[in-house]
Amino acid sequence: MRSVDCGRRQFLKVIGLGAAAIVLPSCAGAARKDSKKTPEGGPNIVFVLADDLGWAELGCYGNKFNETPNLDRLARKGMRFTDAYAAAPVCSPFRAALMTGQWPARVGITDYLRPNDTKHLSTDYVTIAEALKQGGYATGIIGKWHLTGYANHGAKEFPPNVHGFDEVMLSENRGIGGGSYFYPYHFNREIEQRIKPKEYLVDRCNLETLEFIQRHKDERFFLYLSHYAVHTRLVGKEDMVAKYEKKTGAGKGNRAKKNNVHLAAQIESIDEGVGMIMAKLGELALADNTVLIFTGDNGGEDRVTSNAPLRAGKSTLYEGGIREPLIVRWPGVVEASSVCNAPMSTVDFYPTFLGIAGLKSESDHILDGGSLLPLLKGKKSKFKRPALYWHYPLAKPHFLGGKSGGAIREGDWKLMEFFDDGKIELYNLADDVSEKNNLAEKMPKKASELRKRLAKWREEVGAKVK
User: Fold this and answer.
1) Does the pLDDT of residue 186 top 60, yes or no?
2) How far is Cα 84 from Cα 64, in angstroms, rounded to an integer?
3) How many other CB atoms are found less than 10 A from the CB of residue 379?
4) 146 is catalytic
């Protein structure tokens, strides 16, 4: 990995933004002044991530079976994005983009990391946790990391604490595939049980979250709550599963493709946690000083759910594999019940968090994303993003069906290129969000234009097809 691609730690200096750079809304400053719990500076940031959560799983995104009252309330109090994209259709590259603000292809992590993987997120990168820490934030991660191989599998391990997280809770030190939702947890056998008599992983993550907020109530903090749910094998709590089994149209078992009762139960447990976070922030008078964000890392597995009206699911570059729910609440800044249809990507979170905190990075640290602050402030015209890109090269097809390829979205147009056979597909998402009508042959000029742009981008970021 070339240092020019990542920006080494010694070249990054986090400093306060001047008015000439980005001006935070005056109402945000007023909100901070009213609270005696948070010190001067940017607000707290709580980033809640669900694993393998499809775009259409929440009530506020049209789901009629799953029950998500707290996330629906969060959407009513904040902004719901319709065209939010994961930077990759699988786990690790999404997380690499989140931590660095760079396309996964530039980082060099384009597929999920195996337990014995020699690849890892290099410590040469200044992660968003490190940048916020240098800016005066207490930093914590609860749950899934998945940016390293593990010593228990013979790899050299690079856990979250070497990437700027002061507190690391419930993160894995062994392979995480297969699901492990009740104590004891196979992915980290050193975790001790705290909830009796039967501890459920989502509940434990929620508990640790509330305690982190309580511990840091008198200082600025950045908390990354990274749920393992709803990664298969799906296992919900018995009482919740039983409730959903009684609903009309309920699927049978944890492999049902429609109205999966275990999926619904796990989502409700995550939803309960979001409700607890909002309640805790209110109890501590921190709500006005905290930006609360909820999203997912890639599309749902279409063998246990439907991402309709989007096509396909996890591991593919169709919309069902990369489009995600995204909700942002920021009292006094984000208009309640607002909806944003501007396309955004995972790489945008890094500069956004810096902007929220009133910080910036020096130009030596490459940022492929753009700050979402204009969108959050309702100034869509000031948010400029020419295109979104994906690069997903595979030695063989993913077991869920994904194929080696790349994609570009510019405006309403999306082109996909498959590396194995050179096939291209072109869609107008404004008219065809389900990607049913391939326009590549009908519009060869447009297809050629986007294909060339995608190839040029690969060259710019050093992406390799094979």
Assistant:
1) yes
2) 21
3) 10
4) yes
Model pLDDT for residues 200-216, shown as the tens digit of each residue = 999 999 999 999 999 99
- Those residues whose C-beta lies under 8 Å from the C-beta of residue 299, and which sit 6 or more positions away, are 52, 54, 55, 86, 89, 307, 310, 312, 313, 314, 316, 319, 320, 321, 322, 323, 324
Cα–Cα distance measured from residue 399 to residue 407, given in angstroms and rounded to the nearest whole number: 20
What is residue 385's DSSP assignment? -
User: Between β-strands 221-226 and 138-143, what pairing exists: parallel, antiparallel or unpaired?
Assistant: parallel
Q: What is the pLDDT of residue 24?
A: 28
Q: 342 exposed, middle or buried (CB, 10 Å; 0-12, 13-18, 19+)? A: middle
Give the chain's domains with CATH numbers. Answer: 3-385 (3.40.720.10), 404-461 (3.30.1120.10)
Cβ within 8 Å of residue 432, ≥6 positions away: none
pLDDT band with cut points at 50, 70 and 90 for residue 465: confident
Q: How many CB atoms lie within 10 A of CB 395?
A: 7
CA distances, 212 to each of 48, 140, 324 (Å): 14, 8, 27
Residue 456, both tokens: 């040029």
The Cα–Cα gap between 117 and 156 comes to: 9
Q: Which whole number is the average pLDDT over 237-257?
A: 97
For residue 15, is pLDDT > 70? no
Percent of the chain with pLDDT over 70: 91
Global pTM?
0.92
Q: How far apart are CA 123 and CA 412, in angstroms?
A: 37
Please state, in angstroms and rounded to a whole number, the distance separating the CA atoms of residues 66 and 246.
13
Which member of 6, 91, 205, 340 is catalytic? 91
* Alpha carbons 356 and 359: distance in angstroms, whole number: 8
Residue reference for tokens 């939702």: 181
| Catalytic residue chosen out of the listed positions 6, 60, 146, 398 | 146
Predicted confidence at residue 284, as pLDDT, reads 98
Kind of pairing, strands 15-16 and 359-360?
A: antiparallel
Quick one: pLDDT at residue 362?
Answer: 66
Instruction: Choose among 127, 115, 173, 171: nearest CA to 9.
Output: 127
Res 204: pLDDT: 98
**Cα dihedral 449→410→456→348 (10° resolution):** 180
By residue count, the chain amounts to 466
H helix runs in 377-443, sequence order: none
